[in-house]
Amino acid sequence: VAVAGNLAFVGLGTGEVVCVDMLTGTILQRVRLGGPVWDVAIGGDTLLALTDGTLFTLALDGGDMTPLGSVASPFPAAPNRRLFATATLAYAVHGKGYNTFDITNPAAPRLLAAGNTTQFGWKQIVLNGSGVGLAASSPVLAFENPATHNVSLYDTRDPLQTDKFLTTFVTPGFAQAVSI
Do 14 and 33 touch, CB atoms closer than 8 A? Predict the structure, then answer.
């Protein structure tokens, strides 16, 4: 779910993104993208939607969502699941890292870098606006060992470099999501 004003944009397992008026609960529009929509985010005036292997861009005009473009979001192992966006860049997290995209032209989003780290348990990354990404990640996908599912910092100043590890903060359990 992503929110702008009184509107909620919801990605569904049916392959649709719906716009809901949060004051009335009325569904204002449905857009079918195909394949389950795992995450949505707003970058500037653009709604982004992420499926297993594709990043979609949609224009936002009040409650109207107009599909603009799409670009493949490759994944070397587990598919894309989480999304983070700024006004000009998007970050799609998959099992082995994250991909970066230029969304300055929403009609023609471009893949900048396809991430492929040594870790296999990536869950989410969010940026702090100062070139640091906070990530829930792990060297393994399985949840047998809580000591390996922590929160790490990555240098995100260069969107072409998706594996610039800084440090890890050990958590008392399984880090599955992050927020700033």
Answer: no
Tokens of 111: 């893949």
- Determine the average pLDDT of the residues in 46-71: 93
For the chain, how far is it from start to end, CA to CA, in angstroms?
Answer: 16
Backbone angles phi and psi of 122, in degrees to 5: -70, 135
- pTM for the full model? 0.93
Nearest to 84 by CA among 2, 175, 10, 174: 2
Phi and psi torsions of 63, nearest 5°:
-90, 0
Dist CA 60 CA 42 (whole Å): 9
Between CA 158 and CA 129, with CA 59 as vertex, the angle to 5 degrees is 30
Bridge partners of residue 68, in order along the sequence: none
CA distance linking residue 174 with residue 146, whole number of Å:
5
List, in order, residues 6 or more apart from 1 with CB less than 8 Å away.
Answer: 8, 9, 10, 11, 40
% of the chain with per-residue pLDDT over 90 = 79
Do residues 109 and 100 make contact, with C-beta atoms less than 8 angstroms apart?
no
In this structure, what token pair is assigned to residue 112? 């900048």
